[in-house]
Amino acid sequence: MEFEFLVNKVKHKISLEKKEGRFYLRHQGQSFEADIQAISPNEFSLLAGGHSYIVYVAEDKDKKYISIRNELFIIQKPGEEVRGIDRGEDRLQKEKPVVTAPMPGKVIKICVAENEAVRKNQTLAIVEAMKMENELKSPIEGVVKKIFVAAGDLVDSEKPLLELASHP
Q1: Is the pTM of this model over 0.70?
Q2: CATH class for the domain made up of 89-166
Q3: How is domain 2-76 classified at the architecture level of CATH?
Q4: What is the pLDDT of residue 130?
């Protein structure tokens, strides 16, 4: 079977074959053999090229987020909207100072309060996704205008977590 998809906005084409419980992949003229075992619905053991990896997978609408060795990959079908990871900077540039999670996850901690002054790169919140804690930092120096979530809330990558306002 052949598949075409985007990995971090770059198009890739692979062929995949499964024989006797092992996977055989062909990508850019190279062949790979891999053994993949499910540990849980979102956690897999991958043995490839003589190396063992733990792989975490999360889904959000048209994307899959895959974490291998603390490196994040965003997988989606070509032709679908490419949103990428939004840590607030993209929306800020569109005059919407809203901070969102980088991927679906759980809010571990809100580190600021409404009407609190914040400096650029200050940690605003911590979101756990795929067993990794992601510190969401302020893209601007300003004020926390509104907090939309609380610790323990489950969020997706489009849900606004906090709204900021620039200093007047």
Answers
A1: no
A2: mainly beta
A3: 2-Layer Sandwich (3.30)
A4: 77
